[in-house]
What does this fold into?
Amino acid sequence: MKKRIIKIITLVAVFIAAFLTSVHFLNQETGSTSETMELASLPLVYMVSDGTQLNCLHGYTKEMTVTAMRDTLTPLATTQTLEIQIQPFQNEITDISFEVLSSDGSQSLENTKVTKVSEGDSYIDATLEMQQKMLINTEYVLKIQVKADDTPVYFYTRIIYEDNLHTNEYLDFAMGFYERCLTGTDLDTIAAYIEPDETGNNSTMAHMDIHCSMDQLSWADLSPQVYYKPTPSIKEINENTATILLDYMITAQSGSGTTEYYQVSEYYRLRYTEERIMLLDFERDTSQVFDPEAEILTSKGINLGINGKDIEYKNDLNSRYFGFALQGTLWLFDTDTNRITEVFSFPQAYGSDLRDTYNQNDIQIISIDESGNMYFLICGYMNRGAHEGESGVAVYYFDSAVSSVEECLFVDTTQCYELLRKDADALAYVSADRNRFYICVESTIYGIQLDTRQVSTVAENVRADCFVTSESGRYFAWLQQNQPFNSTKITVIDFNTLETREISCADTERIRPLGFMGEDLIYGIANVSDIDTEHEGSEVFPMKVIYIVNGEGETVKTYEASGYYVTGITIEENLLTLDRATKQGTDFEEASQDHIVSSTADEESAYGLTTQVTSRKQTEMILRVGKTLKAGKASQIVRSRQVIYEGSKIVTLEPKETDQNLYYVYAKGKLDSTYTAISQAVNRANDQLGVVVNSNWQNIWERGNKATKTRLNIDEFPSLVMQGSLDVTAWESAFGDNALDLSGCTLDSVLYYVSEGTPVVAKTPVTDEFPYGVIIIAGYDEYNTILLQPGGEETFYYGSDDSTALFEEAGNVFLTYWDPISE
It folds into this structure.
């Protein structure tokens, strides 16, 4: 018996030794190791205004595309100096310099070494002294270079040199508002600034705004405490208004006494008056940090706590595994075993700081198979790890059997997070054979081999309104003619099989891809004779028929309604809403909408997000998993490790020149949307209290930043303006890309350009008072517009309300040009 035991022990020992030896040789062969992600190591840089830190800047390990680094805006003192603080952490800071560039990056005003430096206990203080004269009311880009342990690290912010910006008053207001709401003290002081009404939602703390009650804005029954205070970020500021963001973290105690953590982001839109600061708009978004050790399971599904509805989640075809991403962390839940795995996380379980909780990145789940293996990507700024300080798209593979994460590819770019996210949202897909990755970057569609990292181009310089992608990313449909209102052929590619097919229309017709409902393509066909493209942004493309086709090209639905034309669609989950019009003579008038419901709507009703209501936390998000779970904790919590292979998996995509003239709308402190038509961009920015930036990243329109009154010198008007021309082609010939067709905008919006010094030509009804059917707007005051007849010499006043009605009757047709400030 004893010999048998010894023999068994010996065999087990031999087996273990053989196993460990094989693992050792396998690791030698593949050059792989398994480890946790490296901690954040780069320093942080803060701007300082009258002793107050603002605009925390995160470092990049290489120089970025200057025009894309449009995050914070830092006002300069009247002496053209700027105080900064560097938080070195464990780094030795040996050299500091800065460069001032024009907003489009084409000119470098100066490149200067910083000499005024002093070292304190936690920060290094430095003074940046600009030597070159800068224009008033003009934005520049400031690039700060810091050598940390002899490695250059780059930091970016926009700067503006202008007096009377009231920066400190705005900062004091925002910080005071945040503190009073959190502490619940002196609430009467701030209650006068909010506008509670029936539109405010007082049943959720995930999103609050200026229309919520004071009780709701002061956190109702949550009773939070501050965990770390905000460093204000100035996003926009001018003589009249400012946009400020506060990001901070709070804690609260659960009913069982455990500590809950919440990330909070507050947006302030402010106006300065001599009497007081005015709060024009306010929003607060709150996201509860997911704690796998809490009682996260309910009979409905997984309790995600206080969070918004835009949670990234996906499940496998058998609905056993559910992946979801919250606050920079990706989780995978196994419904059979109730096991939850932390797949990837920038924030640490303990000891996180502002570097690894930085939210300029996004997790996107590409696919989950029936074994729980997952492809996912991280898009944007890399907070820590092997790519810390880089901006790009990292593609990862999670092996569920061994709970390990392998980097498959890192697409290295010099673009900022917001632009990368826009592109990744448009297309990011791993083929079914796991050999190829497809992504959209700067209007080009790339295919990248995951094993060799060879890059091919599927399509380039594709307009954003000329392509659509299926829900999974498998199918991509685009107009090769690249003309949204003048194309006759749609090309569809299946990224799994690489097969393509074409959908065409008759010569007297034009075709457009409209979107995908799941994996089914939606497209429409219009008669050439019905299409109106006279004014960009106000085009009319009335579609007489709508088709829905599946991946094999089979038509699954045809929509035609006698007397009705479809002018646009909206896709929300399983509901397709059709905007319709009827034809009255040669014009089209808006008609009632119609709807198409997807056939898969009922099949998916047991999955997805729902809510539950509690007294303390109000509305909480629940991820439904298709079955009833036993309430309580997860059965097991697993944290994955990264598999590191020798050799680089980096692919660098160099910026490509494009002939597209794009307009970017920034609102509420972030990139809101992108348009090819200035009129659509202005309308969106007007609705969202934002700004419009052109392709050179210069502010081309701002809400709330126009003079109270102005009168232009008509002797300086270009001849085309004096003629009262409404010929768009002539304007483009005279002013190039600076010609602006603002048709469809409001009078108040176009007066911004008059305030900036450029006249506007407007269409009017033909009347005795306006015999030419056109008028020139040469100025305005509080009550009137100042108008000029084409070829005239004398201006006249016309009431503001009458002017608004006059131009609306003529269809709000406006033409002007942008006259950029030059050195």
